[in-house]
Automatic annotation (TrEMBL), chains A, B:
Pfam families: LacI, Peripla_BP_3. One of its GO terms (molecular function) is DNA binding. Residues 16-70 form the HTH lacI-type domain. This is DNA-binding LacI/PurR family transcriptional regulator. Residues 339-359 are annotated as: Disordered. Keywords: DNA-binding, Repressor, Transcription, Transcription regulation. It comes from the Bacteria. InterPro entries: HTH_LacI, LacI/GalR-like_sensor, Lambda_DNA-bd_dom_sf, Peripla_BP_I. PROSITE patterns: HTH_LACI_1, HTH_LACI_2. SMART domains: HTH_LACI. It comes from Arthrobacter ginsengisoli.
DNA sequence: CTGAAAGCGCTAACAA
DNA sequence: TTGTTAGCGCTTTCAG
């Protein structure tokens, strides 16, 4: 241990300090510092010796101390509204990959589910001075929050949704939604319902809006009628898809032959309830989603794939590059999407068949 | 800003320091420190004044500095093998709830998917001196890793699985599995297959083993025959459930009337493929899982519920209590489980009916 | 109740 | 190539 006196009264954290290593190796702390960080200006012999001693003593630099000295924490923050929903957990994994590879730590800030909407406003305190950069995952943010973020003046990027004035990475939501709707139309559907995501008014988040717009535009383009009664909404969960199905079906009047869902989870909700109600997929109802959730392949759900993990990985890379001094590394980028046709969509033709094929 | 000279050359992090606040409030840094942390020995008047100034200046204490001074980071680490699987993402959410409530940060260490098995061995470096305590999520750990962890001499608890010599929180896996199998037996099933989890030999992780043992014991107890060909395994994913179904069905010989799956995701895989193959659930095949995954209710999957979020929340609370000086706060605890009967299980009776009811 | 001052462990000029 | 030395910003005795 070091020689100072003031140590004993502190919180008993054991731990070998750089001084211990320096002493044991017969060099100065400065040299140890260079050696362990792999910096130049250390002779091979000295370096080897120091590394040996460090290893032996089990030395690990204190992140607080080096953080204080350098002004960097080597930690990046990830802000998410949920962690257990598909998009977010995948994105976190992606961010982690890049972070791990570059020896950074990941600090997770989960804004969802904590108290009131008001209180969730991340007290600057939360992230301030604790992270070197921030990755925001597809959050609906208030203007106030955006301002806060920008004041914190650290590299920042948002993944999975536009937030005004912030660089973002995500798919072209308009094009993705349009591709889904076109697929349905090409199959011959004309009676198409829409299950869109929450609007979250006043929360600066336009992913739902953009997808709705795409739906309307493509329908109009094709000269198809958009029925108001078939305009349903959900919150991206399976549950909300189930509820939407019932609102659609437990009501008199004609039924759509296809439904475009703004997320796979909602599409699954539709499929579960449809099946339960004896509505066959895709004979009676074609269902398409967006995402390509882990379960979608198993369920045969046709969808427009996106890769949140890759989006987050890229965003993280940009952040880290920026921190490495590459100015302009962080820039808005459009991520790819791809239509994946499976068995939940088909032509509306067989619909009226009185008896199902022996299936 | 402060007055020192050595500042300019550092990494341009702006930021108001405690000295700035002290100066602006006309008090010493010691007093500011007490005031902002809500410690006693500050007159109400002074405190108010300081808080006002701090607010105005946007002061936030540097975590590195206070970490260095106190030896605490106010961060706890969460070690997980995956983040996007149900159990883990739920557990992370649970841990976060408690952490957030107590003003701690959550540092996520994702061991899965990173390079080779060897390399994944968490270099002590990774967590050492960066966190005050560690929550390990249901990890299969090598002996070496366990040793490492114990050397790091910080509060530690594992959630969701036994790890020898470590305090753990989780359901009684034996009882939970037994409850599932008994449910099947009570329904009248005698031909029961098992889809268990990976063994991960040599990784100190016995959840799969325990569940297998329970299955065998209960079957024996009931005088039922356990067929070797009906002993399947998977890795807890939907995909592996699908594969298992095919191994079971694409083979000549009698078929089971029920299957006990060690996880809901695997059970879902079975259901998806069974449905696709025309095997009706539960008329032809009853399926039961363990977990109560988010999708289980929607799918009508009978299961034994557990709440990873609550387990992790409790584990985190113990860790934090321990850090608060409550010695012995961390102790192994059995979490509750509960059989949830839905529509994927039923009596094997109708099995031989030549024609399905108009369903 | 308040302030002075000595560190916490590490880094980064600057000298040597 | 290596060491000296001044901090980084905050906490915590200890005195007053």
């Amino acid at each position: 241990m070091a020689k100072t006196t003031g140590r004993a009264h502190r919180g008993g954290h054991s731990g070998v300090s750089i001084e211990d290593v320096a002493a044991a190796a017969g060099v100065s702390t400065a040299t140890v510092s260079r050696a362990v960080r792999g910096l130049p200006r250390v002779s091979p012999a000295t370096r080897e010796k120091i590394l040996g001693v460090a290893e032996e003593l089990g030395y690990v630099a204190s992140s607080s101390a080096s953080g204080l000295a350098t002004g960097r924490t080597r930690t990046i923050g990830v802000l998410a509204p949920f962690v257990s929903r598909w998009f977010f957990s995948k994105a976190i994994e992606g961010a982690d990959r890049e972070l791990h590879a570059r020896q950074y730590n990941l600090s997770l800030f989960n804004l969802g589910g904590h108290g009131s909407h008001r209180e969730r406003l991340f007290s600057k305190t939360m992230v301030y001075k604790q992270i070197d950069a921030l990755l925001v995952l597809c959050m609906a943010l208030t203007h106030e929050e955006i301002e806060h973020l920008q004041k914190i003046d650290i590299p920042l990027v948002v993944v999975g949704g536009h937030v005004e004035e912030c660089p973002y990475i995500g798919i072209d939501d308009y094009a993705a939604a349009a591709a889904a709707v076109r697929h349905l139309i090409e199959l011959g559907h004309t009676e198409i319902a829409l299950l869109h995501g929450d609007d979250e008014t006043d929360l600066n988040f336009d992913v739902p809006r953009v997808r709705i717009k795409a739906f309307q535009d493509v329908m109009a383009e094709a000269g198809l009628n958009v029925r108001k009664e078939w305009d349903e909404w959900g919150d991206f969960t399976v549950r909300s898809g189930q509820d939407a199905f019932h609102r659609l079906w437990d009501r008199p009047g004609p039924k759509p032959t296809a439904i475009f869902c703004a997320s796979d989870e909602m599409a699954m909700g539709i499929i579960f309830e449809a099946t339960r109600a004896g509505v066959r997929i895709p004979e009676d109802l074609s269902v398409i989603g967006i995402d390509d959730h882990d379960f979608s392949e198993a369920m045969g759900l046709t969808t427009v794939r996106q890769r949140p993990d890759e989006q987050a990985e890229l965003g993280t890379k940009m952040l880290l590059d920026e921190l490495d001094g590459i100015a302009g590394a962080v820039r808005s980028t459009v991520a790819p999407h791809q239509l994946i046709v499976r068995s939940s969509t088909g032509s509306p033709g067989r619909r009226a068949s009185p008896l199902p094929p022996s299936n």
